[in-house]
Amino acid sequence: MKKVPVTLIPGDGIGPSITAATVRILEAAGAQIDWDSHVAGMAGVAKFGDPIPDATLDSIKRTGVALKGPLETPVGEGFRSINVALRKTFDLYANVRPAYSIAPGGRYENLDIVMIRENTEGLYVGVEHYIKVGDDPRAAAESVAIITRAGSERIARYAFEYAVKHQRKRVTLVHKANILKFSQGLFLETGRKVAHEYAGRVDFDERIVDAMAMNLVLHPERFDVIVTTNLFGDILSDQISGLVGGLGMAPGANIGIHGAIFEAVHGTAPDLAGKGIANPTALVLAGCMMLEHIGQGERAARVRTAVEKVIREGKTVTGDLGGKATTGEFTEAVIGRL
Ligand code: NAD
User: Fold this and answer.
1) Whose alpha carbon is nearest atom 40 of ligand 1?
2) Least confident of 24-28, 42-46, 227-231
3) I need a surface site. Which of 32, 38, 54, 152 has the fewest CB within 10 A?
4) Residue 121 CA to chain centroid, in angstroms?
């Protein structure tokens, strides 16, 4: 099999260690990948004075596929999120975040939820400014949420097509159209129209986001595929990861017409960085999604089975799952199970 070129971005914080673990596991499973490694985030600033160096962007343009560790974004000030910039640059409009129960003994068993989050619009478009009142230049702040009919339609269609392709029964659209009647109203109206086209093939229902947050805690097993706008998807996907063992378990894919970037839902975990104890599972599972994307699904299945075995056994798991294993020990255990 010919090797497929893939851009590798180790990232910041725990990024380099979980990326190295992921590469080792994917290669041990026989993945045929020609890695093209490039920096971004704080590592990009340190090396080139740029959080998204041109060489990194050029590599993704060339390969069309990237596996990315988490990138640090300064809070409140400094440069804008590189993740948001990458999603915009490559128009990665669908953020797919599957979560299923692997770890035994949790609060919920048998969960299998896929969050499909609109990734380019809403409150994350970066249209923000301060408003001066009297002599206070930052007396007020305004952030604009932009929702388009075209953007809503393509993400709703992506969710329904995903449901059809993966034999899923229902799509739940999450919104706040009772208050944000224009922007969220447009998202809901467009989603309903798309749902109509799939009637009889995929069920459809809708929830207001606050009620959804409660429902996800009380009855998460009732949900299948969820589609929602950018900010709600960001928040609810972290909540969903908490239902299946935490952020260390939650992978994600950013899919667009011209490219795809695979990553963990979690960030750089500054509290764990440099200690070698982070759980690499989320990025490994993101690596599996990437293998499926490049037509190496058989290897992805091998990796998933090995990860599931090690986690269910519970002997060599990291601290977030109640164990004492290091990232390296967990990685070796997974490789041993392949
Ligand atoms: P975080 O996701 O890094 O950490 C939240 C909590 O989850 C921490 O307690 C951390 O220890 C734990 N955690 C995260 N990943 C884990 C893993 N693999 N194994 C075990 N525990 C894990 O969120 P944060 O602290 O809010 O953000 C830190 C930085 O990451 C910020 O700069 C933020 O902008 C960035 N961030 C990047 C991405 C991305 O690159 N896609 C996503 C989210 C946050």
Assistant:
1) 70
2) 42-46
3) 54
4) 16
Query: How far is residue 275 from each of residues 136, 245, 331, measured CA to CA in Å?
Result: 44, 21, 15
Locate the ligand 1 atom nearest the alpha carbon of residue 252 and give its number. Answer: 41
* pLDDT score at 139: 98
Which of 14, 68, 71, 266 to probe ligand 1 with, by most ligand atoms within 8 A of CB?
266
Ligand 1 neighbours, Cβ below 6 Å, are 14, 18, 70-73, 83, 247-248, 263, 266-272, 278-279, 282, 320
Residues in the chain: 338
Residue pair 273/14 in contact (Cβ under 8 Å)? The answer is yes
Catalytic machinery residues:
124, 176, 210, 234
Nearest atom in ligand 1 to the alpha carbon of residue 18 is: 18
**Cα 261 from Cα 64, distance rounded (Å):** 8
In DSSP terms, 174 is beta-bridged to: 207, 228
Mean pLDDT of the chain: 95
Instruction: Using a pLDDT cut of 90, give the percent of the chain over it.
Output: 86
* Residue 167, both tokens: 């034999």
| Residue minimizing CA distance to atom 8 of ligand 1 | 269
How far from the centroid of its chain's Cα atoms is residue 23's Cα?
A: 18
Report the pLDDT averaged over residues 25-31. Answer: 98
Question: Residue 134 contacts by C-beta under 8 Å, 6 or more apart in sequence?
Answer: none
What is the mean predicted confidence (pLDDT) over 82-86?
83
- State the closest ligand 1 atom to the C-alpha of 272, by its place in the atom list counted from 1: 11
pLDDT at residue 114 is higher than 70: yes
